[in-house]
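Hi R.,

Here are the chain sequences for the assembly we discussed:
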Amino acid sequence: MKERIIEEKKVILRHHPIEIVEHWVLALSGFLLIFSGFGELPMYKRFMVTKIPGLGWAGDFFINLKIHYLAGIVFFSFMIFHALYHGWLGHKGLLPKKGDIKASIQTILAMFGFGEEPKAHKYLPEQRLAYAYLGGVGLILLITGVVKVIKNLPGVFLPPGLITLTTLTHTFATIFFLLGVIAHLAALIFKVNRPLAKSIFTRKVDLNYAKERHTLWYEELMKEKEKVEFIKEKMESEEEYQKREGSETEDPASN
Amino acid sequence: MNEKNALTRRDFLKKGAMASAVGVAVNAGMIQTASAKAGTYATLIDLTKCDGCNNEPMPKCVEACRRENEKKFPNPVEPIKDLWPQKTHDDWSKKKDVINALTPYNWTMVQKVDLEGEEIFVPRRCMHCDNPPCARLCPFGALNKFSNGAVVINHDLCMGGAKCKAVCPWHIPQRQSGVGPYLKIQPIPAGGGVMYKCDFCHDRIKRGQIPACVEACEKRLGAKRPLHFGIRETMLKMAHERAKEINGFIYGEKENGGTATLYVSKVPFEEINAKLKEMKSNLLMGKVLNPLHDVNGWAKGFIFGPLLSALAAIGLAIYHRREEKREEEK
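And here is the predicted structure of the full complex:
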């Protein structure tokens, strides 16, 4: 499946089903990791989260640990999948580009009504930065998390200094990861971002919205569409010409 | 009992010096492997020989432990605030004299168990597990298992959340509120003090000395002492020999995956545990499975899961590349 304009439905097909699965599996396992990770801090009992109906188990460190391990395996596996699959196919749309910081500030200021938003590609500049931020912090969590899994194994002795450093990095990186997720979700506060959020459920984004905001992407897709249509037309006319030529040469023979 | 296998002070100093030299080299290179386990020390407590120092005002091991660790005891800042939103906090600073419980000011105690007319005295403190859930699960890395076998709390890093106490099968660590790094982040309601427990006299071991409790016991009873300290393998061998000799039982060899505190008794530990339960003691001696056992079984998932997904990613990418090419050719 290639991203393309579907004129009759006034939408652009923005995401491949694989991207939808990746996003939601990482989101769900990420949520479970954050919840069970905070459960590993001794806070759910103290702050009475365990009193919330259905969350009585949340104060049990070993239940949280089991959830953390299982969600960790899924998260790790999908991060590897994501890196290899998109890396192999050369997808670079979400990788930060030069000038993204400046463009992000302009985009965010425009959301508050200051200045004009720069024309964006398939992804907004701050989406690329958010991707790099969450990916980077996620990678730190992944590496330190794997070290923590290793150190839990019986008979494994890692230097105490390394364990303390790894543990503290993992704990504090979690806070930065959570802040990133909150910022990612907070984008929905702004009405202007909402049509974009639809695409992570439906795979499609409104054509007019894309034309307005993701102008560079829209123009690129239009060019491609025109190119395809031009080739199609050319091929059709060639076929017709050949048909005609064929029928003309066949005529005398039939006589 | 075969005392030949017990570590003499001279042997210990020799081995200690060697271990220290290795330790320095290892620390310099930041390398520690499972082989370090070979140099792990342990204490053997022979319950057939402990009389609880019943003619003394305080058991000698308890007294020596308190003296040795006095400088590490907490000095809380008054007034100690409740751990919001809870309306409680832990304060042992007004009960420093308590010796019949583990507290931040008392890291060793002796339990007296009456079993059908026979009195058994059980010295209790941190078991220094081989795979300690407290150290493995501390979210701040404030607890560490050292290659000499000691499980030590870093009081400068401990936030006092008391998770170590919750995950310890014996609930050994004890909290003192009003002290420690959590005070620096107040009024943010996180942490609750500092946790305290026996540290196996980690500093003494590093200096080539034996733990204070063992030394005090040795001073009082000499060769008849119930407390022994040495390389874990030697202590375990001694425990087995003694158990065979008295037709007795061992505690700590397999409990929680193995500990650096071994007990030998002629009375089954199930009976001691049942009596402790009857006495409503919160420091039991039951059978303990390491609570990390389950998740450790799942650790392979961190290899196989990503491996499978890597294969799937490459397979799908190749398929989609071919599909794209076919579409382009069309």
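The radius of gyration of chain B is 24 Å. Strands of chain B lie at 41-46, 109-115, 118-124, 143-145, 151-153, 174-176, 194-196, 227-231, 249-251, 261-265.

Let me know if anything looks off.

Best,
T.
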